[in-house]
Amino acid sequence: NAGVTQTPKFRILKIGQSMTLQCTQDMNHNYMYWYRQDPGMGLKLIYYSVGAGITDKGEVPNGYNVSRSTTEDFPLRLELAAPSQTSVYFCASSYLNAASYEQYFGPGTRLTVT
Amino acid sequence: GQQVMQIPQYQHVQEGEDFTTYCNSSTTLSNIQWYKQRPGGHPVFLIQLVKSGEVKKQKRLTFQFGEAKKNSSLHITATQTTDVGTYFCAGPPQETSGSRLTFGEGTQLTVNP
Known about the structure:
The complex is a heterodimer of chains A (about 110) and B (about 110).
Chain A: E1 4-7, E2 10-13, E3 19-25, E4 31-37, E5 43-51, E6 54-57, E7 64-66, E8 76-78, E9 87-94, E10 104-105, E11 109-113
Chain B: E1 4-7, E2 10-14, E3 19-25, E4 32-37, E5 44-49, E6 55-58, E7 61-65, E8 71-76, E9 85-91, E10 102-103, E11 107-112
Parallel strand pairs in B: 2-11
Antiparallel strand pairs in B: 1-3, 3-8, 4-5, 4-9, 6-7, 7-8, 9-10, 9-11
């Protein structure tokens, strides 16, 4: 299994541009998440999904959109990029059951908005 | 909303010294998880604690969950250079299903050889 994969690894955007960060997992996990991590800081939840067709806002959803049409994919859309969205973005997945809530993280996408 | 705080924010130790990071939640947690992130890497799950007062060990790492399920600690005995990284605690509020986590800000550990 490849686990959680993210593309691209790096991206530079100009202010006002849009882009989609891709995330795919091959572990048949029902839950998927998007976090952002600013330098030297913890992880802030942007959006999460409990299954295909179901998404919900996290702590910092403004400026982002998500969709979950399949179990495997959970893309994150940035519309009208702003410098405040410069960050490292991590996608994660988990299979929630009574025994474990472990989240598996992808390698991240480093985004710079100038 | 729920807040999860970690102290210290940074810790520098000499190789062989012990290290402890503390995690405190503003709300009761149904479980607490610990993750390690190496410099430039992504968070990797270390362990999950569920029961009040639970203690778990992984080689030189000892994890504790407080009796009130609002605090936790990670202790590393005799640190090694491979322990370098940022350690995060995370937990869902007790009233939730565990589908979302609130992460602490992390403790960044550096080890001088």
